[in-house]
Amino acid sequence: MKGRTNSNYRRLQRFFAQVDLDQDQIAKFIYQLFDLDKVIISIDRTNWQWGKKNINIFMLSIVHQGIAIPLYWTLLDKKGNSNSNERCEFIQKFINTFGADKIQYVLADREFVGKAWFKWLNKEQIKFCIRIKHNTLVPNHQGKLVQVKTLLRHLSHHETFMLARVVCMVLKFVYLQSVILIMIMSL
Q: Residues 6 or more apart from 123 whose CB is under 8 A from it?
């Protein structure tokens, strides 16, 4: 059985060494396979070591029935997070293939924040839902900047809360929502 596994593995290696996979074609195939229309886009990144080599994968997935299905991915040639330009280019790749009208909103973790990034999403009129750090400063009802955890201190675990007013964060007006995680949602 081990010889058969090794043989199959070598066959896969030869295939991927000889074939140039077109991510747009793969993305279109997946989109059609799942009969998708408007989608939630999830962006995420993972970084791990393979010996002395860092492998840093930045991925754009679509959320379908509770799972994230990768459409686009790239290896970042660095340690750490993507920057605003890399994020914008990734979302633009989706838009070029499927259109901006196919995006319900972009879902991301708290490492995907920044003025330029939020400004671009706003300019492109793309809604987003991004987790923020509990110590992020937001204006309270008096206009004083306080940590978001202070605004939501009355919540217990698993309790949901949506602020009934709009607050300005990093030059972007957003709704604050809390479901254990603290999220920002664009208008």
A: none
